[in-house]
Amino acid sequence: MSFDGIFTRAISKELDGKLVGGRIDKIYHPEKNELVLFVRLNRMTYKLYSSISSNAAGIYITNQTIENPANPSSFCMLLRKHLSGGIIESVNQYGWERIVEINVRAKDELGFDTQKKLIVEIMGKHSNITLVDSASMKIIDTIKRLSLDVHSNRPLLPGLIYQYPPLQQKISPDSIANNLDLLKNISSTSQLMDSIQGISPQLANELFYSDDIKWYEKLECILNKIENVEFCPVVYLNDENYPEDYYALQLEHYSRFYEKKFDSISEALEYYHVNKIDINRIRQKSSDIMKSLNRLIKKLNNKRQNLLNDINISQKAEEYKLFGELITANIYAFKDGVSEITVMNYYDNSEITIALDSQIGLVENAQQYYKKYNKAKRAKVEKQVFLEKANRDIEYLESIRSFVEMAGNTSTLDEIKNELIDGGFISKSKLPQSKQAKKNYSTYYRYKTKNGLDIYAGRNNVENDKLTFKVADKSDIWCHTKDIHGSHVILITGGSKPSDEDILEACEVAAFHSKAKNSSKVDVDFVNVKYVKKIPGARPGMVIFNNNKTLTVIPQLPKSIG
Which are the contacts of 362, defined by CB distance < 8 A and separation ≥ 6? Predict the structure, then answer.
């Protein structure tokens, strides 16, 4: 995480510039580790968001919609009592530590001015938010209380005097010039972090990235930019658009990543945390669905193997019928009570030995073989029906597994879960009531060709059905990867004949939204929608088609998003 002491200086300066003079209008405590102050200033409302979550600790102004819990926490009620209506007088950093102090002038119950300090410590798993009386530094309360048993050196409990984290024996960035003779010999990132306050591994790597300029000269340049509020907030993205890191200024050693620049540090922080959390949620949710799918597919594969075994056994039906016939034909040639008989098979003039139950007569043995024949004959037909259904269900679940792998957000995964519920594969009770997705299958992927034609792609089987049979016109072009699970892709033609280039782009989209996304070349079938038919009684997304043509394409998306 790049929320080091120097970055903390930058965000505290940004917040001080935007919030000083603002009145605290509302206070929400939406989650256990989150706090939001609504600050009213110059007819605008700023939402100051603080989080002490170990994987998303930070403080910034958010544009997200914040829900107010129906039952506010006791800590929230206490903050409302002490801070509501208060004026923010300053936002500053404590030293060069990852601590932001929000100084508030408020009124007590008698109407007298009081000075309160909301201290936000941004220290990974040790993060905390504490309200103190500015004059006495006595703790009024803290979002995460730490008793003497838990933290003997620095307890945080109401009534105690607030103690800042112990200062590290490092040189302040303000004093580098005075200590330059001692610092010039630093030659590694670890030495740098051990010697100077507020420097993260990311910043240390940046300072040693280039030999063209000394690390202390580069640090001086960075400090000057922060002091003068000359920020250039950046989020660094990998090849999959996954946020890897952020900073208040551009970092040269991150040149291998894509840069996404923002107008404010708050916007960059919000983008980073929201997308980082979303991706983690996607991974967790997709993992849960994958476990269910893998379990279901394994169960169906076992069922299919058992059915195949039963069908193989039922192949003996004709043999049972033959045994019954031969026993009946030779019933007077043998006595009851024997365990087997050897007779001539009049179909091919060969001898055949038939096992018998010696406890019953020949007539009863013949009847038993006829019963086995009838049972095996029925079983063969029934098992074949069950086998076909198992094969269809496996194919369907495999297609869903592909959509889970391609899902780009949690709402898509929620809809896939609903599809599994509607299909009877998982029970509704497995979804928490508050988390169930609304059945709104209208947010399919949208793109435009270079010529301006719309391309739609389904995110799941239900959307595939809707696109192909409700949204698309008969004259539109339907595309799908050949023998590979993927989205139904529709090229909207408006009744006109599309160009070869348009069809190629639509086929490329179909290849991209398929299990073969990472292949270099993919075969894609395309045909007018009128030639695509739904299989009667089949699961969503299962179709048949004819008159198709095939293109071999590179999986990729058009430049224009619809």
Answer: 327, 331, 334, 336, 356
Contact at 8 Å (CB) between 241 and 33? no
Widest pairwise Cα distance in the chain:
121
Q: Which residue has the tokens 């509020």?
A: 229
Q: Which residues make Cβ contacts (< 8 Å) with residue 273, sequence separation at least 6?
A: 51, 56, 58
For residue 235, the cross-strand partners are 246, 260
104: DSSP letter: E
Helix (H) or strand (E) holding 23: strand 23-28
What average pLDDT does this structure show over 59-67?
A: 91
Q: Mention every residue, 6+ apart, whose C-beta is less than 8 A from residue 161.
A: 136, 137, 138, 139
Which tens digits make up the pLDDT trace of 343-368?
999 889 899 999 999 999 999 999 99
DSSP state of 108: -
Closest CA to 216 of 242, 239, 237, 186: 186
Residue 443: closest CA among 422, 416, 424, 479 = 416
356/339 Cα distance (integer angstroms)? 5
Radius of gyration of the chain (CA): 36
Q: pTM higher than 0.70 for the full model?
A: no
